[in-house]
Amino acid sequence: MNDPHTGPRDPAGGPVPRVLCDTAALAADCAETGALWRLAEPGRQLDANLVRIPPGGRIDTHVEPDVDVLLLVVAGDGSVVTAEEAQPLTPGTLLWLPHGTARALTVGEGGMSYLTVHRRRPGMRIRPRPAD
Questions:
Q1: 12 located within any domain
Q2: 7-43: per-residue pLDDT in tens?
Q3: Is residue 64 situated within a structural domain?
Q4: How many domains does the chain have?
Q5: Distance CA 24, CA 27 (A)
């Protein structure tokens, strides 16, 4: 059975666990950069992305105000730079990025691929402009 809003369902009506992708295969010898894969399953409570940053690339300092993020390095290397220090990132490193913390990523000579997972953000809403 398949529900267009929640995806495949088992005979009792529950969701069906399934393999979504092979992150190692996607990241291996990949010249493409940016988001290589995104979790897009209907009815999900999480967001996830497999991202590749090119050799020597950088993500400037930023703050995620709303959600904690788990970052798992799949291939390549680099470092995360926080207010405290720079920490090396190598394949297999699992990093917790608490919401509200400032961080930047620098990428090594071979590039870096990583998986991020966080709570799904609500859709954008148009709100009235606050009164002055």
A1: no
A2: 666 677 777 787 888 888 888 766 788 888 888 888 8
A3: yes
A4: 1
A5: 5
Of 52, 48, 55, 53, residue with least CA distance to 21 = 48
Amino acid identity of residue 44, one-letter, is R
Structural domain includes residue 131: no
Q: Which of 73, 91, 89, 90 is nearest to 81 (CA)?
A: 89
| Distance from C-alpha of 6 to C-alpha of 131, rounded to nearest angstrom | 40
pLDDT for 1 beyond 60: no
What is the CATH number for 55?
2.60.120.10
Name beta bridge partners: 102.
Answer: 63
How far apart (Å, rounded) are the C-alpha atoms in residues 28 and 51?
Answer: 12
Place of tokens 């999480």: 46
Q: Is residue 8 part of a domain?
A: no
